[in-house]
Design a protein that fits this description.
The radius of gyration is 16 Å and the shape is globular. It has two domains: 83 residues, P-loop containing nucleotide triphosphate hydrolases (Rossmann fold), CATH 3.40.50; 31 residues, no CATH class. It is of the alpha+beta class. The chain has four helices and four strands, in the order ββαββααα. Strands 2-1-3-4 form a four-stranded antiparallel β-sheet, covered by helices on one side.
Length: 128
């Protein structure tokens, strides 16, 4: 049974090993363990190819770890409904890709329902 809600709590990666499906014999992550406390803002910093984007992709469930666990609030991420997860978690990449559309449409992309207030809050996080 997938977990529809709530989403919250610490993000914990324990001994995560990952290889891209097209390069299964070449792991890009070998035993990564880390935790991020709920409400904290973090930045992943490192050289090109060290796994920063891979961590973001794993947290969005774009890929599954080869082994190890990722939990959110003590619940295994793989047990969380992927659509619900992606509706409530945002990732801002260093090189964000924008879709052909307005800034408003880009902010709303993928959201089932979002108010104008939410769009404005997302566009100007320092304004509130």
């Amino acid at each position: 049974m997938l977990q529809p809600s709530p989403l919250g709590g610490d993000v914990v990666l324990k001994n995560v090993i990952f290889a891209y499906p097209t390069r299964i014999n070449e792991p890009v992550m070998r035993g990564l363990s880390m935790s991020v406390q709920e409400g904290k803002c973090v930045a992943l910093v490192g050289t090109s190819g060290c796994g920063k984007s891979t961590v973001a992709a794993l947290l969005q469930r774009l890929y599954k770890p080869t082994s190890g666990t990722i939990t959110l609030g003590g619940i295994k991420l793989r047990r969380t409904d992927v659509h619900h997860l992606r509706e409530h978690v945002s990732v801002v990449s260093q090189q964000p890709n924008l879709f052909d559309g307005s800034v408003r449409e880009n902010i709303m992309y993928g959201a089932v329902s979002i108010s104008d207030v939410d769009v404005e809050r997302a566009a100007c996080s320092q304004c509130t």
